[in-house]
C-alpha cells in the first residue's frame, strides 16, 4: 500500500510540498556544484531587482513575487544583512524605502546568470517532454482559487454533508403550543402579538387549512429547531417561527429548516416567500441572504411588519 498514491486527493498538498522540497534540494546541489554559496530561496528576489534595474518598494516586490509583505520583509532583511541589498529613500515620499542591489549583489547576479540560463533551458526541456500542458493546468488551478477559494470549496461540501444528515419532520398541530411557547417573543418579529396568540391556539384553522405547515428538527427527543410556512395570498408565502436552540447553532440546522420551508412553499404553488426581520439580527440576515432573500418594500402596505423598525425580505421561488 502506498498511502500518498492511494489517497492522492487528500494528500495533494503534502505531495506537492514534497515535490517542491525535492526541487529545492536539487537546486541547492546545483549551486554547490558550480561553487556558489547562495540560498536558492533568495534567487527570485535577486533576479527581480536585476531585471528591474531600479530600486523597488517592498509592496511592489511582494506583488511581483506573489508573497506576503511579512515574507518579503524577512527575506530582504536577511539579504541586507548578507550585503546583497541596500535600501534607499523614495524621492517622493521619504517615509517609504526602496530596495536595490549592492555591488556584491550585482557580482552575485553575474555569477548566477549562466546557472539560471541553464536551469531555465533544462526546465523547459523537461516540461515540454514530460508534461507539455503543465503551466496551462497550473494557471487554471491558480485562477480557480481566485474565483472560489479552497476553503470555500471544502466548507460548501462539508455544509452539504451536515445538512444531508438533518431530517426535518412535520410537527403535529397539537404539539405547536408546547414547542413554540418558550420562544413566543421571537414570533412577534413576524406577527403582531394577538395574531401569534390566535395562531398558537388554533394552528389548524389559521395556518394548516390554507396549506401552511410547521416543521421541526428534534434530537434525542428534544425539539431544537422549528420553522413555519403560512400562505398569505394565492402565490405568496410567509416564513414564521424560524428558530434554533442556541446550543445547536452554526451546524446548518437553520439553513436546512429554511430550505424545507421554501420547498413546502413551492409545493403549495407559491411563487414568492417573505420574511419580516430586523437589520439588527445579523445572523438571520446572513441565513436568509444565503438562500437569495433580498430586502424589499414592495409589500409593506399589503403585508405590514408588526413593528415599524422591522424590514421585509423576499425571495422568488
Structural notes for this entry:
- There is one protein chain.
- The protein has 317 residues and is of the alpha+beta class.
- It folds into two domains: 114 residues, Winged helix-like DNA-binding domain superfamily/Winged helix DNA-binding domain (Arc Repressor Mutant, subunit A), CATH 1.10.10; 148 residues, Gcn5-related N-acetyltransferase (GNAT) (Aminopeptidase).
- Helix content is 50%, strand content 17%.
- It is built from 14 helices and ten strands.
- The strands form two sheets. A seven-stranded mixed sheet has the order 4-5-6-7-8-10-9. The chain has a three-stranded antiparallel sheet with strand order 1-3-2.
- It is elongated.
- The two termini are 50 Å apart.
Quick rundown:
With 317 residues, the chain is α+β, with helices and mostly antiparallel strands. Helix content is 50%, strand content 17%.
Radius of gyration, whole Å: 31 Å
User: How many domains is the backbone divided into?
Assistant: 2
What fraction, in percent, of the residue positions are helical? Answer: 40-55%
Based on secondary structure, the structural category is: alpha+beta
Q: Would you tell me which CATH topology of the largest domain applies?
A: Aminopeptidase
Query: Strand fraction band?
Result: 15-25%
CATH-defined superfamily of the largest domain: Gcn5-related N-acetyltransferase (GNAT)
Quaternary structure state of the chains depicted: single chain
Features:
single chain; 317 residues; alpha+beta; Arc Repressor Mutant, subunit A; Aminopeptidase; 7-stranded mixed sheet; 14 helices
Amino acid at each position: 500500500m502506498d498511502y500518498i498514491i492511494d489517497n492522492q486527493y487528500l494528500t495533494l498538498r503534502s505531495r506537492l510540498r514534497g515535490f517542491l522540497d525535492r526541487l529545492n534540494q536539487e537546486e541547492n546541489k546545483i549551486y554547490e556544484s558550480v561553487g556558489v554559496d547562495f540560498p536558492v530561496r533568495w534567487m527570485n528576489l535577486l533576479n527581480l531587482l536585476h531585471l528591474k534595474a531600479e530600486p523597488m518598494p517592498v509592496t511592489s516586490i511582494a506583488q511581483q513575487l506573489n508573497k506576503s509583505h511579512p515574507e518579503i520583509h524577512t527575506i530582504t532583511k536577511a539579504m541586507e544583512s548578507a550585503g546583497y541589498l541596500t535600501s534607499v529613500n523614495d524621492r517622493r515620499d521619504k517615509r517609504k524605502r526602496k530596495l536595490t542591489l549592492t555591488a556584491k549583489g550585482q557580482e552575485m547576479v553575474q555569477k548566477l546568470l549562466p546557472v539560471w540560463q541553464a536551469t531555465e533551458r533544462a526546465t523547459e526541456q523537461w516540461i515540454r517532454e514530460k508534461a507539455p500542458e503543465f503551466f496551462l493546468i497550473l494557471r487554471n488551478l491558480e485562477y480557480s482559487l481566485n474565483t472560489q477559494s479552497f476553503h470555500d470549496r471544502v466548507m460548501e461540501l462539508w455544509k452539504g454533508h451536515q445538512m444531508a444528515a438533518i431530517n426535518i419532520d412535520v410537527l403535529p398541530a397539537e404539539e405547536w403550543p408546547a414547542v413554540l411557547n418558550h420562544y413566543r417573543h421571537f414570533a412577534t418579529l413576524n406577527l403582531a402579538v394577538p395574531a401569534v396568540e390566535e395562531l398558537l391556539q388554533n394552528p389548524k384553522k389559521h395556518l394548516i387549512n390554507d396549506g401552511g405547515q410547521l416543521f421541526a428538527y428534534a434530537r434525542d427527543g428534544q425539539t431544537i429547531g422549528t420553522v413555519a410556512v403560512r400562505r398569505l395570498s394565492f402565490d405568496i408565502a410567509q416564513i414564521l417561527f424560524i428558530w434554533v436552540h442556541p446550543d445547536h447553532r452554526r451546524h446548518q440546522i437553520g439553513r436546512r429548516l429554511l430550505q424545507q420551508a421554501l420547498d413546502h412553499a413551492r409545493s403549495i404553488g407559491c411563487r414568492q416567500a417573505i420574511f419580516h426581520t430586523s437589520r439588527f439580527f445579523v445572523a438571520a440576515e446572513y441565513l436568509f441572504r444565503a438562500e437569495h432573500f433580498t430586502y424589499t418594500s414592495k409589500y409593506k402596505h399589503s403585508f405590514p411588519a408588526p413593528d415599524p423598525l422591522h424590514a421585509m425580505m423576499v425571495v422568488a421561488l
